[in-house]
UniProtKB/TrEMBL annotation:
<keyword id="KW-0520">NAD</keyword>
<comment type="function">
    <text>Involved in the oxidation of myo-inositol (MI) to 2-keto-myo-inositol (2KMI or 2-inosose).</text>
</comment>
<dbReference type="GO" id="GO:0019310">
    <property type="term" value="P:inositol catabolic process"/>
</dbReference>
<dbReference type="InterPro" id="IPR000683">
    <property type="entry name" value="Gfo/Idh/MocA-like_OxRdtase_N"/>
</dbReference>
<comment type="similarity">
    <text>Belongs to the Gfo/Idh/MocA family.</text>
</comment>
<dbReference type="InterPro" id="IPR004104">
    <property type="entry name" value="Gfo/Idh/MocA-like_OxRdtase_C"/>
</dbReference>
<protein>
    <recommendedName>
        <fullName>Inositol 2-dehydrogenase</fullName>
        <ecNumber>1.1.1.18</ecNumber>
    </recommendedName>
</protein>
<dbReference type="InterPro" id="IPR050424">
    <property type="entry name" value="Gfo-Idh-MocA_inositol_DH"/>
</dbReference>
<dbReference type="InterPro" id="IPR023794">
    <property type="entry name" value="MI/DCI_dehydrogenase"/>
</dbReference>
<feature type="domain" description="Gfo/Idh/MocA-like oxidoreductase C-terminal">
    <location>
        <begin position="140"/>
        <end position="329"/>
    </location>
</feature>
<feature type="domain" description="Gfo/Idh/MocA-like oxidoreductase N-terminal">
    <location>
        <begin position="8"/>
        <end position="128"/>
    </location>
</feature>
<comment type="subunit">
    <text>Homotetramer.</text>
</comment>
<keyword id="KW-0560">Oxidoreductase</keyword>
<dbReference type="InterPro" id="IPR036291">
    <property type="entry name" value="NAD(P)-bd_dom_sf"/>
</dbReference>
<dbReference type="GO" id="GO:0050112">
    <property type="term" value="F:inositol 2-dehydrogenase (NAD+) activity"/>
</dbReference>
<dbReference type="Pfam" id="PF02894">
    <property type="entry name" value="GFO_IDH_MocA_C"/>
</dbReference>
<dbReference type="GO" id="GO:0000166">
    <property type="term" value="F:nucleotide binding"/>
</dbReference>
Length: 339
């Protein structure tokens, strides 16, 4: 670590999320600085690095991870590139914050899990940022406190204003519902055992051929039922809502009633347009928690096990979507490192 214990971070992938994390580390987070930025698009990396003192631009992640001033890595490249970068980070024994998904499929996630086990200690926090969102944290504390009794059902609504170019029907599961897979496992402290995906008629807002929306159902090993309305072309904005139905009551988050105006014979509020706005505080808290834990020599938050479990549920989800049947999740036993 350099500059009196300041963590030198290499940010790999400087697209939408990576550039936002670079800004966050540079301007918001304490105890860390952006030592390197990496992008296959060398011009893009250079433009970002030029605006930050002491930051070097790379187009090769391995070269950045070998640099003396790099103490930790934030991976924000597309999912298929994560495995190679995680394995290189392990070779240098560097702490990692890896954006979701850990990797795009269960087999590659398992390889990462096995490599971390070989290392003998946890090195990775996975970027499931909802665990750092103030509302989700309150819901988790309430459920853990037990005052509502055992959770029986969890209803989720996950809506995006529009889907990015090239977004596929499987991406609704892998890219979007993956967050509900993680919050379900985390909130209920249960594993997801089976997935069913039902499809209403496609929205006319959606690009031709995209199965959007989807209605996804999880069964859990604790006997809970969970549903997710996944809807990525609402046209009107971004919404993430959840309602836990428990034996002695219910709890809801994502109601967006922080500011309600009444004027000219109408009342109402505004709807945010995307995740960078809705989860801005959660991303800040997530990255700060990673920096703080890393500086203490600890690894906290969603683990490689959580990334692997989500990948296994995604795989079942994509099969359930394409084959139109209920699919059981196949997972290995949880290794001792993650208990
Ligand atoms: N936690 C969250 O809410 C969100 C997480 N994500 C995740 O963040 C990651 C990045 O997503 P976006 O920023 O939306 O993608 P993006 O497409 O905007 O940016 C990706 C960047 O990575 C670069 N890149 C591609 N392959 C690379 C490689 N091998 N090495 C270095 N750079 C490489 C590209 O040139 C591009 O600049 C993904 O894993 C995605 O799932 C994305 C959106 C929200
Ligand atoms: O991770 C994310 C995106 O990749 C995904 O496409 C969105 O649906 C999610 O809400 C966002 O958090």
């Amino acid at each position: 670590m350099t500059q009196r214990g300041t963590l030198g971070v290499a940010v790999i992938g400087t697209g939408r999320m990576g550039a936002d994390h670079v800004r966050r580390i540079d301007e918001v987070i304490s105890g860390a600085r952006v030592a390197a930025v990496v992008d296959l698009d060398a011009e893009r990396a250079k433009r970002l690095a030029d605006g930050i003192e002491g930051c070097t631009a790379y187009s090769d992640a391995a070269a950045a991870m070998a640099a003396d001033d790099v103490d930790a890595v934030l991976i924000a490249s597309p999912g298929p590139a994560h495995e190679a970068d995680l394995l290189t980070a392990f070779a240098h024994d560097l702490p990692v914050l890896c954006e979701k998904p850990l990797t795009p499929d269960a087999a590659s996630a398992l390889r990462v899990l096995q490599a971390e086990q070989k290392l003998g200690h946890r090195r990775v926090q996975v970027g499931f940022m909802r665990r750092y969102d103030a509302e989700y944290m309150k819901l988790k504390a309430l459920l853990d406190g037990g005052s509502l009794g055992r959770p029986l059902m969890l209803h989720n609504r996950h809506r995006n204003a529009s889907s990015p170019p090239g977004f596929t029907s499987a991406n609704l599961i892998n890219d979007s519902v993956v967050h509900e897979m993680d919050v379900t496992r985390w909130l209920l402290d249960q594993e997801i055992t089976a997935v069913t995906v039902l499809r209403p008629r496609p929205s006319s807002n959606a690009p031709e051929g995209l199965a959007d929306p989807q209605f996804v159902i999880f069964e859990t090993d604790g006997g809970a039922l969970v549903d997710v309305e996944m809807n990525v072309n609402t046209g009107f904005g971004y919404q993430v809502k959840a309602e836990a139905v428990c034996e002695r009551g219910t709890a809801r988050i994502g109601e967006e009633q922080s500011l309600v105006t009444e004027t000219a014979g109408q009342w109402g509020g505004t709807i945010v347009q995307d995740f960078t706005e809705r989860f801005a505080d959660a991303y800040d808290r997530e990255v700060q928690a990673w920096v703080d834990a890393t500086r203490r020599g600890e690894v906290t938050g969603p683990s490689v096990w959580d990334g692997y479990a989500a990948a296994a549920v995604c795989e079942a989800g994509v099969r359930a979507l394409t084959e139109g049947v209920r699919v059981e999740v196949e997972m290995i036993e949880r290794p001792a490192l993650y208990r």
